[in-house]
Every structure is written in structure tokens, then in C-alpha cells.
Amino acid sequence: MGAGAAGIAAAREAMGLGLTVRVLEARGRVGGRALTDAAVPMDLGATWLHAAQSNPLVPLAEARGLELFDHDSVRSSRVWMGDRWASEADMEGYDRAERAWHAAVTLAGAGGGVRSLADAAPRGGFWDATLTHWEGPVIAAAEAGEIDLDDYLATLLNGTNLLPREGCGHLLAVLAEGLPITLSAPVERIAWGGKRVRAEGAFGVLEAGAAVVTASTGVLASGAIRFDPALPERTIGAVHDLPMGLLSKVGLRASGDDRLDLPSFGGIERRLDPGERAMTFVAWSFGRDHLEGFAGGALAWDLAREGEGAIVDLAFQELRGMYGERAERALRREGGVESSWGTDPWSMGAYASLRPGRGGARAALSAPIGEGRLMLAGEACHESLAGTLAGAWGSGARAAREAVAAVRRLT
After folding, report:
1. Contact yes or no for 125/97 (Cβ under 8 A)
2. Mean pLDDT, residues 39-52
3. Which of 52, 97, 297, 410 is least surrounded by CB atoms within 10 angstroms?
4. Other Cβ atoms within 10 Å of 317 Cβ, number
5. Domain 5-35+46-67+165-243+357-410 has CATH 1.20.120.530
6. Quick one: what percent of the chain has pLDDT higher than 70?
7. Beta-bridge mates of residue 212
């Protein structure tokens, strides 16, 4: 149930194993939290194929002739120091501080007893607050104090980061082609206590030998889907131990030829003092005419509560601080796009992070329920690729194999 990465993978896997499937998707489109705005174009949700050397989506994309671009090969960044751009010497210091920051966090994890990323992160160094903000809100979509240290270390991503030129949302739409998907069919109740699993909603009633549910932990925690009987206490505990974080995006269109002295894929960061929050930016991806802004963690949730347009206002405020009125002349407010994962009732956030001290929750969330008749899947279930399309895809495929085995064992 759900036609995001996990649901598409589950359907493909089950069909490949010889079962008949039906995918019920609440939205009027496929892709879940991967959505490509074709007009800009840019991804408003999942953007990169991380850990490309082991990412199952890479060969699938290549087999369909989709172009994948090595973002790491051109990645560059400018850092605003508050009154000037960072010099070469500043950036060398930043690089040294980053290595020291990661070494300190890794050492803290090896020593045991440290629960949160914030507790492990160095403090007092010139770049420490900037690095902690980057690794927490920007990368993990949650504040460092809300992230379990062991889980953070277990889910660090290695390998190349690839960008599908046509977007991750487009990629999932291609991979969903030919699947039996019913759109605009939110599931309201799942009865799993008998020999069959029954899904109910405005679409009617659908019965099956097993079901894979790919709703986010935010949706599961909200009670939007009623389970009968209720989910096991261990599963419910895991849902609440993996709350949704938020990473919000905005795309601002250029108003003319001024590209703010930034190359294609050029990044902008701001050096932060403790307690400060900021957006980050990536410019003119693939030579296109839009600047992408990112806000994560508590800042993103605050902007979601303020409503539509708040992230646009903040982006211009940040850019004016760096470029002055040139930013207003170079970029337009109209024609831009922004994500809405924090208020989207079918996601209620971007991706899940583990609360400090709650180890084992990802395994508990993905454990078979009802002898395997009911399986939960999604990025929150993956113990090493959490928060990624690859994690969601792998989790969905694994859940389908478990469900297929249950159907064959119990019938």
C-alpha cells in the first residue's frame, strides 16, 4: 500500500515471484516523497541516488536509458563569513575542522555511553556549530540533540552521489510503469487478524493473502490508518521512536543573466555561531535557471507552520545578507516552487530519524506482523540506508519477500 519507492519495489518484487498484486496509493500520483516539478524542473523531495556503487536504483535507471550525473565531480561551495566570502585559507581551515569533527564523533560512538549526536559533537571550535548544523538539520532533517549517535554512525553514506537529470520523481514514475496501481485510494482501515488481510477505504474493500504497508512513520503515528487489531506494542513503540524530520526545499528562478558569480551546482553555506540557523543553497543545477534552497530540522518545521511563501521570504532574506539588493534583481519571487512535506497529510515530514537511546527501532518497525501477513516498509525501516530512496527500495523489496513467503507458508 503506497506507490513510493518502497511500494513500487514491493510490487515489482512480489510480481517477479509470481504473485498477483494491487498497489493502493493515497495521492493522485506515484513517487511518494520523490516528486519532480517538471516546469522548473527540480526535485522537491528525494534528489540524489546516494551510495551509487551499491544502490539498486542505479542499474534500473541505466537500463532504461536515464542519464545519471556524478554530482560529486563538480561539487563546490562558497561560505559566507558574515561580512565577506571565505578565503582559500578559511576553506582549508573548514576542511580540517570537518575531519576533526567527524573523528571526534566517531570516537565518541566507539566509546559508548553517548546517546545523541549533539552530545558527541565538538563544541567551541570556530566551525563546530556550522558542522553540527550541517550534519543534523541539513543532512538528517532533525536537530542534533534529537538524533541517536549510534544510528547516525550506522547510516552514514559512502560512495558516489548521482543525480538523475530528469529527477528522482521521474525515475520512480518510469519504474512504476505497468504496475497495477490505483491512485487517489487512501486506506482507512487494515484488518489483519484473520487468514486474509483486508484494506478498506472510499475505494471499497480489497482482500489479499498479505499486505505491505509503506506509509511514513508520521502517517502511522497520526492514526490516519486504523489497524484491526491494533499493531503490536513493539511496532507502535518503533513508530514513535522514529519521528519524521523535515527538509524543505524552494526553487527560485533567475530574472535575467546574473548568476551571482556561482557555477552550475555551486553551493552556498553560511558560517554559524552556536544557536544560529540558516538555509543552504545549490545553484543552477545542470545549467538551468533556478537556485535551490534547503531548510532543515526545527527551522523547516517553523517555516511549515508559517505557511506558503515563508521559505521564499527566508531565502531572499538570507541571500540579501550576502548579495544585498543584487539578490532581489537576480532572482524572482514569482514562478518559484516550494515543497510542502511538513503539511502533506500523506507524509507528515521528509524522512525519519531515531530518537537518542532507542536502538533497535528500525528492526522492530520492519519485523513481520501476523506471521508475515502484514509488513511495514519504507526508508525508516532500513538500518544502513535510512532516509534515502535506496533504503526505501531495499526495504520494500525485503518486505515483499517476507510477505510472499508468508502467503505460501500459510495457504
Report:
1. yes
2. 93
3. 410
4. 11
5. no
6. 100
7. 375
DSSP-derived secondary structure letter, 139: I
Q: Residue 263 is placed in which grid cell?
A: 557555477
Cell of 295: 531548510
Q: What percent of the chain lies above the pLDDT cut of 90?
A: 96
Please report the DSSP string for 244-299 in residue order: EE-EEEEEEEESSS--TT--TTEEEEE---TT----EEEE-GGG-SEEEEEEEHHH
CA distance 90 to 271: 11
167 vs 379: CA distance, rounded Å: 19
Write the pLDDT tens digit of every residue in 254-296.
999 999 999 999 999 999 999 999 999 999 999 999 999 999 9
Among 293, 274, 292, 276, residue whose Cα is nearest residue 284: 292
> Is-contact 357 118, C-beta < 8 A?
no
Assign 333 to helix, strand or coil. strand
The separation between CA 78 and the C-alpha centre of its own chain, rounded to angstroms, equals: 24
Above 90 in pLDDT, residue 40?
no
Q: CB of 6 within 8 A of CB of 163? A: no
Paired with 189 in beta bridges are: 200, 226
- β-bridge pairing 280-283 and 204-208: unpaired
**Cell numbers representing residue 321 in the block:** 545578507
DSSP state at residue 74:
T
Spatial distance between the Cα atoms of 344 and 4, rounded to a whole number of angstroms: 14
CA-wise closest residue to 386 among 350, 358, 356, 357: 350
Q: Where are the alpha helices (DSSP H) in 307-377?
A: 310-323, 326-330, 361-366
Beta bridge partners of 162: 49, 70
Residue 278 exposure: Cα atoms within 13 Å on the Cβ side: 26
Kindly give, in sequence order, each residue whose CB lies less than 8 Å from that of residue 344, ignoring residues fewer than 6 positions away. none
